[in-house]
Amino acid sequence: MTTTETTVKMILDRWNASIKNFGDLLNSLTDEQLQKEIAPKRNRGVYLIGHLIAVHDLMIPLLDMGEKLYPNLQQSFFELPDKAVAEIPSAKELRECWIKHCEWLRQKFESLKPEQWFDKHTVVSDEDFAKEPHRNKLNIIVTRTSHLQYHTGQFVLLK
Amino acid sequence: MTTTETTVKMILDRWNASIKNFGDLLNSLTDEQLQKEIAPKRNRGVYLIGHLIAVHDLMIPLLDMGEKLYPNLQQSFFELPDKAVAEIPSAKELRECWIKHCEWLRQKFESLKPEQWFDKHTVVSDEDFAKEPHRNKLNIIVTRTSHLQYHTGQFVLLK
Description:
159 residues, mainly alpha, globular
């Protein structure tokens, strides 16, 4: 196994385990629990699910994998805070989006060769990337795994 | 920059940014706020600080860098849940431990050459490591960064 292969495995394993952990938690909660706030006057469970899908959706163009799957979620779950928009998708709809989104990403991620993860992402110029090779696609997964874990620590409070 | 150097930079950058983020949050909270629970009937702020120090302390022997700095914190903050032990260190003492511990780890981490991060950690056998080279020291940082982020998402609720 090369260093490149080992590295990609480490980082994708952590991403996949974090996705599974959040998904297991989601399955363990009822739709009613998802309507609750994680703590008094804080985000609701449904907001956190939508927020994670919206953030993961933004990775798609960043990783040069195409267009966002659910651009309609950006305003309610990324640009605006919870409760700013009166009508948001139901818990049932958000559960379906979560599952489809995770599966879509899984297939795309598996199609990349290990060395392709070290290619630049789409918002860094060739010139900057030559000087800063850590601004690659794999680093997007590193930072988004952190983000997912941060909100999973909050989501678990609904249990 | 080699792939090894790029990878180590990506993962240590994420660890260092996560440590800084938690430290900045800690500095923004009063000792009184740290005595509060992150949500009703959940862990207190002081417990989370002690828990993170205890978990980071367990990394030291795992990374073959010596002995734990604060073994006395293991029982109250790792083996037992919050409020199981009546007397725990004060918020002031925990703040000092946090700062010293982060600085100690920072110096140790900087002293390792990039390729040394791909050496095996201490609880995997040579035989297993030959088959599973991802069970290296750097992967300990990957998983502990996830853990730190998970609890940071909770700690921020004290604000």
